[in-house]
Amino acid sequence: MVTGWFDGEGDDFRLLGTRCSACASVFFPREDVFCRNPACAGGVLEELRLSRRGRVWSYTDSRYRPPSPYVTDRELPWQPYALIAVELAAERIVVLGQAVPGVAVADLAVGMEVEVVPGVLNEDAETTWTTWHWRPTGVTA
Amino acid sequence: MTRDVAVLGAGMHPWGKWGRSFVEYGTAAARAALADARVDWRDVSSIVGADTVRGGYPGYVAGATFAKALGWQGARVTSVYAACASGAQAVGAARAQILAGLADVVLVVGADAAPKGFFRPAGGNRADDPDWLRFRVLGATNPTYFGLYARRRIAVHGDTLEDFAQVKVKNAASGALNPYARYRKRVTAEEVAASAVVADPLRLLDICATSDGGAALVLSSMDFARRHGVAEPVRIRAVSTVTPRYPTTVLDLPDIATDSAVAVEPAAEAFRASIARAAYEEAGIGPEDLSLAEVYDLSTALELQWYEDLGLCAEGEAAKLLREGVTAPGGRIPVNASGGLASFGEAVPAQAIAQVCELTWQLRGEAGDRQVAGARVGISANQGLFGHGSAVVAVR
Predict the structure, then answer these.
(1) Lowest mean pLDDT across A64-68, A128-132, B127-131, B244-248
(2) B251 with A71: Cβ contact below 8 A
(3) Mutation test of the interface with chain A: which of B118, B120, B138, choosing the one with the most A Cβ atoms within 10 A?
(4) What is the spatial distance between Cα A48 and Cα A91, in angstroms, rounded to a whole number?
(5) What is the ipTM score, two decimals?
(6) Distance (Å) from the alpha carbon of B136 to chain A's nearest alpha carbon
(7) For residues B272 and B325, what is the distance between their CA atoms, to the nearest angstrom?
(8) pTM above the 0.90 mark?
(9) Between the CA of residue B296 and those of B261, B348, B383, what are the distances in Å?
(10) d(CA A8, nearest CA chain B) in Å
(11) Collapsed DSSP state (helix, strand, coil) of residue B183
Protein backbone atom coordinates (compact mmCIF):
# COMPACT_ATOMS: atom_id res chain seq x y z
CA MET A 1 0.00 0.00 0.00
CA VAL A 2 2.75 2.45 0.93
CA THR A 3 5.81 0.56 -0.21
CA GLY A 4 9.04 2.26 0.76
CA TRP A 5 7.56 4.85 3.13
CA PHE A 6 9.35 3.45 6.20
CA ASP A 7 11.79 0.73 7.26
CA GLY A 8 13.79 -0.56 10.20
CA GLU A 9 12.77 -1.95 13.56
CA GLY A 10 12.80 -0.71 17.12
CA ASP A 11 15.05 2.32 17.59
CA ASP A 12 16.18 2.01 13.98
CA PHE A 13 12.64 2.57 12.58
CA ARG A 14 12.51 5.59 10.25
CA LEU A 15 10.22 7.24 7.71
CA LEU A 16 11.72 7.14 4.23
CA GLY A 17 11.56 10.18 1.99
CA THR A 18 13.59 11.22 -1.01
CA ARG A 19 16.02 14.09 -1.61
CA CYS A 20 16.76 15.81 -4.91
CA SER A 21 20.46 15.44 -5.70
CA ALA A 22 20.42 18.80 -7.52
CA CYS A 23 18.70 21.15 -5.04
CA ALA A 24 18.48 19.07 -1.82
CA SER A 25 14.69 19.40 -1.57
CA VAL A 26 13.19 16.68 0.62
CA PHE A 27 9.95 14.87 -0.17
CA PHE A 28 7.64 12.78 1.99
CA PRO A 29 5.72 10.77 0.95
CA ARG A 30 8.60 9.87 -1.33
CA GLU A 31 8.72 11.58 -4.72
CA ASP A 32 10.59 9.32 -7.13
CA VAL A 33 9.81 10.88 -10.49
CA PHE A 34 10.38 14.64 -10.48
CA CYS A 35 11.69 17.34 -8.18
CA ARG A 36 8.81 19.70 -7.31
CA ASN A 37 11.00 22.75 -6.66
CA PRO A 38 10.07 25.13 -9.53
CA ALA A 39 13.58 26.59 -9.51
CA CYS A 40 15.21 23.18 -9.98
CA ALA A 41 15.89 21.62 -13.35
CA GLY A 42 15.69 18.25 -11.63
CA GLY A 43 18.15 15.71 -10.36
CA VAL A 44 18.20 12.09 -9.30
CA LEU A 45 15.91 11.55 -6.30
CA GLU A 46 17.75 9.61 -3.63
CA GLU A 47 16.19 7.79 -0.71
CA LEU A 48 16.50 9.59 2.63
CA ARG A 49 15.86 8.37 6.17
CA LEU A 50 13.99 11.15 7.97
CA SER A 51 14.75 12.34 11.49
CA ARG A 52 13.44 10.10 14.22
CA ARG A 53 12.27 12.92 16.47
CA GLY A 54 10.30 16.10 15.93
CA ARG A 55 7.96 18.54 17.66
CA VAL A 56 4.17 18.65 17.63
CA TRP A 57 2.91 21.30 15.16
CA SER A 58 -0.70 20.51 15.97
CA TYR A 59 -2.93 17.58 16.88
CA THR A 60 -6.53 16.44 16.86
CA ASP A 61 -8.50 13.23 17.03
CA SER A 62 -11.20 11.31 15.23
CA ARG A 63 -14.26 10.83 17.41
CA TYR A 64 -16.31 9.36 14.58
CA ARG A 65 -15.40 6.32 12.50
CA PRO A 66 -13.78 7.51 9.25
CA PRO A 67 -15.31 6.22 6.01
CA SER A 68 -13.61 3.71 3.73
CA PRO A 69 -10.96 3.30 2.43
CA TYR A 70 -9.98 3.49 6.12
CA VAL A 71 -10.37 -0.08 7.37
CA THR A 72 -12.09 -0.70 10.70
CA ASP A 73 -13.96 -3.60 12.23
CA ARG A 74 -17.56 -2.45 12.25
CA GLU A 75 -18.41 -5.19 14.72
CA LEU A 76 -16.38 -3.36 17.36
CA PRO A 77 -17.28 -0.05 19.01
CA TRP A 78 -15.32 2.87 17.58
CA GLN A 79 -12.17 3.79 19.48
CA PRO A 80 -10.99 7.32 18.64
CA TYR A 81 -7.29 7.79 17.87
CA ALA A 82 -5.24 10.95 17.99
CA LEU A 83 -3.55 12.40 14.90
CA ILE A 84 -0.38 14.44 15.26
CA ALA A 85 1.27 16.78 12.74
CA VAL A 86 4.99 16.76 13.53
CA GLU A 87 7.62 19.29 12.52
CA LEU A 88 11.00 17.72 11.69
CA ALA A 89 13.64 20.40 12.19
CA ALA A 90 16.42 19.07 9.96
CA GLU A 91 14.09 18.42 7.00
CA ARG A 92 11.89 21.50 7.67
CA ILE A 93 8.80 19.44 6.92
CA VAL A 94 5.57 18.64 8.79
CA VAL A 95 4.41 15.01 8.68
CA LEU A 96 0.98 13.83 9.83
CA GLY A 97 0.55 10.49 11.55
CA GLN A 98 -1.56 8.64 14.07
CA ALA A 99 -0.45 8.68 17.70
CA VAL A 100 0.43 5.35 19.28
CA PRO A 101 -2.62 3.62 20.74
CA GLY A 102 -3.33 4.87 24.25
CA VAL A 103 -2.10 8.43 23.64
CA ALA A 104 -5.06 10.83 23.55
CA VAL A 105 -5.32 14.56 22.83
CA ALA A 106 -5.24 15.24 26.59
CA ASP A 107 -1.70 13.82 26.63
CA LEU A 108 -0.45 16.18 23.89
CA ALA A 109 0.66 19.79 23.55
CA VAL A 110 1.92 21.89 20.65
CA GLY A 111 5.73 21.93 20.78
CA MET A 112 6.04 18.60 22.63
CA GLU A 113 8.76 16.23 21.41
CA VAL A 114 7.61 13.01 19.74
CA GLU A 115 9.37 10.15 17.99
CA VAL A 116 8.40 7.84 15.18
CA VAL A 117 7.72 4.20 16.00
CA PRO A 118 6.39 1.25 14.02
CA GLY A 119 2.70 0.51 14.37
CA VAL A 120 -0.14 -1.61 13.07
CA LEU A 121 -2.73 0.07 10.86
CA ASN A 122 -5.05 -2.91 10.70
CA GLU A 123 -4.92 -6.67 10.32
CA ASP A 124 -7.05 -9.53 9.16
CA ALA A 125 -6.54 -13.29 9.19
CA GLU A 126 -3.98 -13.18 6.38
CA THR A 127 -2.31 -9.78 6.52
CA THR A 128 -1.03 -7.20 8.98
CA TRP A 129 -0.76 -3.70 7.50
CA THR A 130 2.05 -1.85 9.21
CA THR A 131 2.42 1.93 9.46
CA TRP A 132 4.19 4.63 11.46
CA HIS A 133 2.95 6.14 14.70
CA TRP A 134 4.07 9.21 16.65
CA ARG A 135 4.80 8.68 20.34
CA PRO A 136 5.69 11.36 22.90
CA THR A 137 9.31 10.80 23.91
CA GLY A 138 9.58 9.21 27.31
CA VAL A 139 6.40 7.21 26.79
CA THR A 140 7.29 3.55 26.49
CA ALA A 141 3.85 1.96 26.21
CA MET B 1 -12.92 49.66 -16.69
CA THR B 2 -13.14 47.58 -19.85
CA ARG B 3 -12.08 44.51 -17.87
CA ASP B 4 -15.36 44.39 -15.94
CA VAL B 5 -18.08 41.91 -16.74
CA ALA B 6 -21.68 42.44 -15.69
CA VAL B 7 -23.67 40.19 -13.40
CA LEU B 8 -27.08 40.29 -15.06
CA GLY B 9 -28.69 37.57 -13.03
CA ALA B 10 -28.26 35.42 -9.92
CA GLY B 11 -30.27 32.40 -8.87
CA MET B 12 -30.20 29.57 -6.36
CA HIS B 13 -31.98 26.40 -5.45
CA PRO B 14 -32.43 26.28 -1.66
CA TRP B 15 -29.75 24.23 0.14
CA GLY B 16 -30.86 21.15 2.07
CA LYS B 17 -31.08 17.39 1.82
CA TRP B 18 -33.67 17.00 -0.87
CA GLY B 19 -32.76 13.57 -2.22
CA ARG B 20 -32.87 14.65 -5.85
CA SER B 21 -30.31 14.81 -8.66
CA PHE B 22 -27.79 17.63 -8.90
CA VAL B 23 -29.22 18.28 -12.39
CA GLU B 24 -32.52 19.39 -10.86
CA TYR B 25 -30.86 21.81 -8.44
CA GLY B 26 -28.64 23.31 -11.12
CA THR B 27 -31.41 23.66 -13.64
CA ALA B 28 -33.70 25.34 -11.11
CA ALA B 29 -30.91 27.77 -10.17
CA ALA B 30 -30.18 28.44 -13.86
CA ARG B 31 -33.82 29.22 -14.62
CA ALA B 32 -33.91 31.57 -11.62
CA ALA B 33 -30.76 33.37 -12.78
CA LEU B 34 -32.08 33.68 -16.36
CA ALA B 35 -35.38 35.08 -15.08
CA ASP B 36 -33.52 37.51 -12.83
CA ALA B 37 -31.44 38.63 -15.83
CA ARG B 38 -34.48 38.80 -18.13
CA VAL B 39 -32.48 36.76 -20.65
CA ASP B 40 -34.00 33.95 -22.73
CA TRP B 41 -31.94 30.75 -22.49
CA ARG B 42 -31.91 30.59 -26.31
CA ASP B 43 -30.00 33.89 -26.35
CA VAL B 44 -27.21 32.59 -24.11
CA SER B 45 -24.10 32.09 -26.22
CA SER B 46 -22.07 30.00 -23.75
CA ILE B 47 -22.71 27.80 -20.73
CA VAL B 48 -20.08 26.92 -18.12
CA GLY B 49 -20.76 24.13 -15.64
CA ALA B 50 -18.88 23.53 -12.39
CA ASP B 51 -18.47 19.77 -12.16
CA THR B 52 -19.41 17.41 -9.38
CA VAL B 53 -17.68 14.05 -9.09
CA ARG B 54 -20.44 12.82 -6.87
CA GLY B 55 -23.15 12.63 -9.48
CA GLY B 56 -21.61 9.74 -11.37
CA TYR B 57 -20.43 10.09 -14.95
CA PRO B 58 -22.75 12.98 -15.94
CA GLY B 59 -21.13 15.04 -13.19
CA TYR B 60 -17.90 15.19 -15.12
CA VAL B 61 -19.67 16.97 -17.96
CA ALA B 62 -21.79 19.39 -15.97
CA GLY B 63 -21.96 22.15 -18.61
CA ALA B 64 -23.56 19.88 -21.18
CA THR B 65 -25.74 18.19 -18.55
CA PHE B 66 -27.34 21.51 -17.64
CA ALA B 67 -27.54 22.57 -21.31
CA LYS B 68 -29.43 19.38 -22.14
CA ALA B 69 -31.80 19.85 -19.20
CA LEU B 70 -32.51 23.44 -20.27
CA GLY B 71 -32.91 22.29 -23.88
CA TRP B 72 -30.11 22.00 -26.44
CA GLN B 73 -29.74 25.31 -28.26
CA GLY B 74 -26.21 25.12 -29.63
CA ALA B 75 -24.38 27.23 -27.03
CA ARG B 76 -20.62 26.97 -26.57
CA VAL B 77 -20.01 24.65 -23.59
CA THR B 78 -17.34 24.38 -20.89
CA SER B 79 -17.08 22.12 -17.84
CA VAL B 80 -14.57 22.73 -15.07
CA TYR B 81 -13.47 20.76 -12.04
CA ALA B 82 -11.42 22.38 -9.28
CA ALA B 83 -12.97 20.81 -6.16
CA CYS B 84 -14.35 23.57 -3.88
CA ALA B 85 -12.97 26.18 -6.29
CA SER B 86 -14.93 24.75 -9.26
CA GLY B 87 -17.47 27.56 -9.07
CA ALA B 88 -14.81 30.26 -9.14
CA GLN B 89 -13.09 28.61 -12.09
CA ALA B 90 -16.46 28.50 -13.85
CA VAL B 91 -16.89 32.23 -13.24
CA GLY B 92 -13.28 32.74 -14.38
CA ALA B 93 -13.82 30.77 -17.59
CA ALA B 94 -17.04 32.68 -18.36
CA ARG B 95 -15.34 36.01 -17.71
CA ALA B 96 -12.37 35.12 -19.93
CA GLN B 97 -14.72 34.23 -22.79
CA ILE B 98 -16.58 37.52 -22.40
CA LEU B 99 -13.40 39.62 -22.17
CA ALA B 100 -11.95 37.78 -25.18
CA GLY B 101 -15.06 38.56 -27.22
CA LEU B 102 -15.92 34.88 -27.64
CA ALA B 103 -19.30 35.22 -25.93
CA ASP B 104 -21.66 38.05 -24.99
CA VAL B 105 -23.83 36.28 -22.42
CA VAL B 106 -22.70 33.28 -20.39
CA LEU B 107 -24.67 31.11 -17.99
CA VAL B 108 -22.60 29.72 -15.09
CA VAL B 109 -24.09 26.82 -13.12
CA GLY B 110 -22.94 24.67 -10.21
CA ALA B 111 -24.92 22.10 -8.26
CA ASP B 112 -24.38 19.03 -6.13
CA ALA B 113 -26.17 16.32 -4.22
CA ALA B 114 -23.66 15.56 -1.47
CA PRO B 115 -23.52 12.34 0.54
CA LYS B 116 -24.41 12.39 4.23
CA GLY B 117 -21.52 12.48 6.67
CA PHE B 118 -17.85 12.66 5.76
CA PHE B 119 -16.72 13.28 2.22
CA ARG B 120 -14.70 10.31 1.01
CA PRO B 121 -12.61 9.54 -2.06
CA ALA B 122 -13.91 7.60 -5.05
CA GLY B 123 -13.76 3.82 -4.72
CA GLY B 124 -11.04 1.37 -5.65
CA ASN B 125 -7.44 0.94 -4.50
CA ARG B 126 -5.76 4.11 -5.67
CA ALA B 127 -2.41 4.49 -3.92
CA ASP B 128 -1.39 7.14 -6.50
CA ASP B 129 -4.13 9.47 -5.19
CA PRO B 130 -3.18 11.60 -2.15
CA ASP B 131 -6.86 11.94 -1.27
CA TRP B 132 -7.27 8.15 -1.15
CA LEU B 133 -4.02 7.74 0.79
CA ARG B 134 -4.90 10.12 3.61
CA PHE B 135 -8.09 8.17 4.28
CA ARG B 136 -6.54 4.72 3.91
CA VAL B 137 -3.29 5.31 5.79
CA LEU B 138 -4.40 7.82 8.44
CA GLY B 139 -8.19 7.92 8.50
CA ALA B 140 -7.72 11.66 8.07
CA THR B 141 -11.14 13.12 7.19
CA ASN B 142 -11.68 16.80 6.31
CA PRO B 143 -12.55 17.63 9.94
CA THR B 144 -9.16 16.19 10.93
CA TYR B 145 -7.49 19.09 9.12
CA PHE B 146 -9.99 21.62 10.52
CA GLY B 147 -9.17 20.29 14.01
CA LEU B 148 -5.43 20.65 13.39
CA TYR B 149 -5.85 24.29 12.26
CA ALA B 150 -8.11 25.10 15.21
CA ARG B 151 -5.70 23.61 17.76
CA ARG B 152 -2.81 25.45 16.12
CA ARG B 153 -4.70 28.77 16.43
CA ILE B 154 -5.36 28.09 20.12
CA ALA B 155 -1.67 27.34 20.69
CA VAL B 156 -0.21 30.19 18.63
CA HIS B 157 -2.78 32.98 18.85
CA GLY B 158 -4.66 32.18 22.04
CA ASP B 159 -8.04 31.75 20.35
CA THR B 160 -10.63 30.08 22.58
CA LEU B 161 -13.44 27.61 22.05
CA GLU B 162 -15.80 30.47 22.92
CA ASP B 163 -14.36 32.51 20.01
CA PHE B 164 -15.03 29.61 17.65
CA ALA B 165 -18.57 29.22 19.00
CA GLN B 166 -19.25 32.93 18.45
CA VAL B 167 -18.50 32.51 14.72
CA LYS B 168 -21.28 29.91 14.58
CA VAL B 169 -23.63 32.12 16.61
CA LYS B 170 -22.99 35.02 14.22
CA ASN B 171 -23.41 33.00 11.02
CA ALA B 172 -26.47 31.13 12.22
CA ALA B 173 -28.13 34.46 13.05
CA SER B 174 -27.54 35.59 9.45
CA GLY B 175 -28.57 32.23 7.99
CA ALA B 176 -31.87 32.48 9.85
CA LEU B 177 -32.63 35.48 7.61
CA ASN B 178 -31.70 33.75 4.32
CA PRO B 179 -34.45 31.84 2.51
CA TYR B 180 -31.85 29.81 0.56
CA ALA B 181 -29.99 28.58 3.65
CA ARG B 182 -30.43 25.01 4.85
CA TYR B 183 -30.27 25.87 8.56
CA ARG B 184 -32.53 28.75 9.47
CA LYS B 185 -32.37 28.64 13.26
CA ARG B 186 -30.34 30.82 15.57
CA VAL B 187 -27.75 28.93 17.60
CA THR B 188 -26.38 29.80 21.04
CA ALA B 189 -22.83 29.36 22.30
CA GLU B 190 -24.22 26.88 24.82
CA GLU B 191 -25.64 24.77 21.99
CA VAL B 192 -22.25 24.75 20.25
CA ALA B 193 -20.53 23.72 23.48
CA ALA B 194 -23.09 20.97 24.07
CA SER B 195 -22.67 19.42 20.62
CA ALA B 196 -20.48 16.33 20.20
CA VAL B 197 -16.74 16.66 19.60
CA VAL B 198 -15.92 15.59 16.03
CA ALA B 199 -12.22 16.42 15.76
CA ASP B 200 -10.83 17.93 18.96
CA PRO B 201 -11.17 20.85 19.67
CA LEU B 202 -14.00 21.23 17.12
CA ARG B 203 -17.56 20.17 17.73
CA LEU B 204 -20.39 19.26 15.40
CA LEU B 205 -21.67 22.84 15.32
CA ASP B 206 -18.18 24.17 14.54
CA ILE B 207 -18.05 22.17 11.29
CA CYS B 208 -20.12 22.66 8.16
CA ALA B 209 -22.45 19.91 7.00
CA THR B 210 -22.72 18.38 3.55
CA SER B 211 -25.71 19.57 1.56
CA ASP B 212 -27.58 19.51 -1.69
CA GLY B 213 -27.82 22.83 -3.48
CA GLY B 214 -27.42 24.79 -6.67
CA ALA B 215 -26.39 28.28 -7.74
CA ALA B 216 -26.18 30.09 -11.07
CA LEU B 217 -25.14 33.42 -12.57
CA VAL B 218 -25.79 35.12 -15.88
CA LEU B 219 -22.71 37.13 -16.84
CA SER B 220 -22.35 39.43 -19.83
CA SER B 221 -20.17 42.04 -21.44
CA MET B 222 -20.72 45.60 -20.25
CA ASP B 223 -21.89 46.47 -23.79
CA PHE B 224 -24.52 43.75 -23.73
CA ALA B 225 -25.71 44.91 -20.30
CA ARG B 226 -26.16 48.47 -21.59
CA ARG B 227 -27.99 47.26 -24.72
CA HIS B 228 -30.11 45.13 -22.39
CA GLY B 229 -31.10 48.26 -20.47
CA VAL B 230 -28.96 47.68 -17.40
CA ALA B 231 -26.79 50.78 -17.11
CA GLU B 232 -25.31 50.13 -13.65
CA PRO B 233 -25.04 46.39 -13.14
CA VAL B 234 -23.08 44.68 -10.39
CA ARG B 235 -19.69 44.08 -11.98
CA ILE B 236 -17.09 41.38 -11.48
CA ARG B 237 -13.76 43.14 -11.30
CA ALA B 238 -11.43 40.28 -10.39
CA VAL B 239 -11.34 36.50 -10.30
CA SER B 240 -8.39 34.92 -8.51
CA THR B 241 -7.67 31.27 -9.28
CA VAL B 242 -4.01 31.10 -8.24
CA THR B 243 -2.03 28.03 -7.18
CA PRO B 244 0.25 27.89 -4.12
CA ARG B 245 3.98 28.71 -4.21
CA TYR B 246 6.59 26.07 -3.38
CA PRO B 247 7.24 25.24 -0.60
CA THR B 248 3.84 25.22 1.10
CA THR B 249 4.56 24.93 4.81
CA VAL B 250 1.02 24.72 6.20
CA LEU B 251 -0.32 21.17 6.13
CA ASP B 252 -3.20 21.23 3.67
CA LEU B 253 -5.93 18.85 2.53
CA PRO B 254 -5.45 16.20 1.23
CA ASP B 255 -1.71 15.99 1.93
CA ILE B 256 0.00 13.79 4.52
CA ALA B 257 2.95 16.18 4.78
CA THR B 258 3.96 19.71 3.84
CA ASP B 259 6.63 20.58 1.31
CA SER B 260 10.07 20.76 2.86
CA ALA B 261 11.55 24.24 3.27
CA VAL B 262 15.08 22.89 3.44
CA ALA B 263 16.09 24.00 -0.07
CA VAL B 264 13.83 27.00 -0.72
CA GLU B 265 12.85 29.63 1.83
CA PRO B 266 9.04 29.82 1.97
CA ALA B 267 7.28 33.00 0.89
CA ALA B 268 6.24 35.26 3.74
CA GLU B 269 2.67 35.00 2.47
CA ALA B 270 0.71 31.77 2.94
CA PHE B 271 -1.45 30.31 0.17
CA ARG B 272 -4.81 31.62 1.33
CA ALA B 273 -3.41 35.13 1.70
CA SER B 274 -2.00 34.95 -1.84
CA ILE B 275 -5.47 34.08 -3.16
CA ALA B 276 -6.85 37.29 -1.69
CA ARG B 277 -3.88 39.41 -2.72
CA ALA B 278 -4.19 38.31 -6.35
CA ALA B 279 -7.86 39.35 -6.30
CA TYR B 280 -7.08 42.71 -4.69
CA GLU B 281 -4.31 43.44 -7.21
CA GLU B 282 -6.48 42.56 -10.17
CA ALA B 283 -9.35 44.68 -8.84
CA GLY B 284 -7.13 47.59 -7.82
CA ILE B 285 -8.60 47.65 -4.33
CA GLY B 286 -7.51 46.73 -0.82
CA PRO B 287 -9.20 45.25 2.24
CA GLU B 288 -9.99 48.78 3.45
CA ASP B 289 -12.35 49.20 0.46
CA LEU B 290 -14.54 46.20 1.29
CA SER B 291 -18.16 46.49 2.36
CA LEU B 292 -18.53 42.74 3.00
CA ALA B 293 -16.85 39.37 2.54
CA GLU B 294 -18.16 35.88 1.94
CA VAL B 295 -15.56 33.35 3.10
CA TYR B 296 -15.32 29.58 3.12
CA ASP B 297 -16.13 28.74 6.75
CA LEU B 298 -15.63 24.99 6.55
CA SER B 299 -15.13 25.37 10.28
CA THR B 300 -15.65 28.23 12.69
CA ALA B 301 -11.89 28.45 13.32
CA LEU B 302 -11.19 28.59 9.59
CA GLU B 303 -13.41 31.67 9.22
CA LEU B 304 -11.13 33.45 11.70
CA GLN B 305 -8.11 32.39 9.63
CA TRP B 306 -9.67 34.02 6.58
CA TYR B 307 -9.98 37.39 8.39
CA GLU B 308 -6.19 37.46 8.57
CA ASP B 309 -5.65 36.05 5.09
CA LEU B 310 -7.99 38.68 3.62
CA GLY B 311 -6.03 41.38 5.44
CA LEU B 312 -9.01 42.46 7.55
CA CYS B 313 -6.63 42.42 10.52
CA ALA B 314 -3.06 41.48 11.37
CA GLU B 315 -2.04 37.88 11.95
CA GLY B 316 -3.35 36.56 15.24
CA GLU B 317 -5.95 39.30 15.67
CA ALA B 318 -8.98 37.64 14.09
CA ALA B 319 -10.61 36.69 17.37
CA LYS B 320 -10.25 40.28 18.54
CA LEU B 321 -11.95 41.48 15.35
CA LEU B 322 -14.79 39.04 15.97
CA ARG B 323 -15.16 40.01 19.62
CA GLU B 324 -15.36 43.68 18.65
CA GLY B 325 -18.24 42.91 16.30
CA VAL B 326 -16.38 44.18 13.24
CA THR B 327 -17.41 41.13 11.18
CA ALA B 328 -20.97 40.91 12.51
CA PRO B 329 -24.04 42.39 10.81
CA GLY B 330 -23.81 46.15 11.28
CA GLY B 331 -20.04 45.95 11.79
CA ARG B 332 -17.43 47.63 9.60
CA ILE B 333 -16.96 44.54 7.42
CA PRO B 334 -19.68 41.91 7.85
CA VAL B 335 -18.41 38.42 6.99
CA ASN B 336 -20.77 35.73 5.76
CA ALA B 337 -23.89 37.85 5.79
CA SER B 338 -25.44 34.97 3.82
CA GLY B 339 -25.01 32.68 6.82
CA GLY B 340 -21.97 31.03 5.25
CA LEU B 341 -21.32 27.33 5.03
CA ALA B 342 -22.38 27.16 8.68
CA SER B 343 -25.92 27.78 7.44
CA PHE B 344 -25.71 26.32 3.93
CA GLY B 345 -23.45 23.27 4.21
CA GLU B 346 -21.20 22.19 1.38
CA ALA B 347 -22.58 21.64 -2.10
CA VAL B 348 -19.12 21.71 -3.57
CA PRO B 349 -19.43 23.02 -7.14
CA ALA B 350 -22.22 25.42 -6.18
CA GLN B 351 -20.73 27.16 -3.17
CA ALA B 352 -18.27 29.55 -4.82
CA ILE B 353 -21.06 30.56 -7.24
CA ALA B 354 -23.48 30.97 -4.33
CA GLN B 355 -20.99 33.35 -2.70
CA VAL B 356 -21.13 35.56 -5.81
CA CYS B 357 -24.95 35.37 -5.81
CA GLU B 358 -24.91 36.74 -2.27
CA LEU B 359 -22.46 39.50 -3.23
CA THR B 360 -24.74 40.39 -6.15
CA TRP B 361 -27.88 40.66 -4.03
CA GLN B 362 -26.02 42.63 -1.37
CA LEU B 363 -24.51 45.07 -3.88
CA ARG B 364 -27.92 45.58 -5.48
CA GLY B 365 -29.45 46.23 -2.06
CA GLU B 366 -31.77 43.25 -2.50
CA ALA B 367 -30.64 41.13 0.45
CA GLY B 368 -33.71 41.81 2.58
CA ASP B 369 -33.32 41.52 6.35
CA ARG B 370 -29.65 40.59 6.04
CA GLN B 371 -28.75 43.61 3.86
CA VAL B 372 -25.36 45.21 4.51
CA ALA B 373 -26.16 48.94 4.42
CA GLY B 374 -24.61 50.80 1.50
CA ALA B 375 -22.63 47.82 0.18
CA ARG B 376 -20.36 48.86 -2.71
CA VAL B 377 -17.50 46.31 -2.81
CA GLY B 378 -17.55 42.64 -1.88
CA ILE B 379 -15.08 39.79 -1.98
CA SER B 380 -15.62 36.03 -1.89
CA ALA B 381 -12.84 33.72 -0.76
CA ASN B 382 -12.53 29.99 -0.99
CA GLN B 383 -9.97 27.28 -1.55
CA GLY B 384 -10.23 24.07 -3.55
CA LEU B 385 -8.62 20.74 -2.68
CA PHE B 386 -5.27 20.07 -4.42
CA GLY B 387 -4.21 23.74 -4.56
CA HIS B 388 -7.00 25.70 -6.24
CA GLY B 389 -7.34 29.33 -5.24
CA SER B 390 -10.69 31.06 -5.47
CA ALA B 391 -11.70 34.65 -4.86
CA VAL B 392 -14.02 37.03 -6.70
CA VAL B 393 -14.27 40.80 -6.29
CA ALA B 394 -17.63 42.33 -7.20
CA VAL B 395 -18.41 46.05 -7.18
CA ARG B 396 -21.35 48.33 -7.72
Answers:
(1) B127-131
(2) no
(3) B138
(4) 10
(5) 0.96
(6) 4
(7) 23
(8) yes
(9) 27, 11, 7
(10) 19
(11) coil
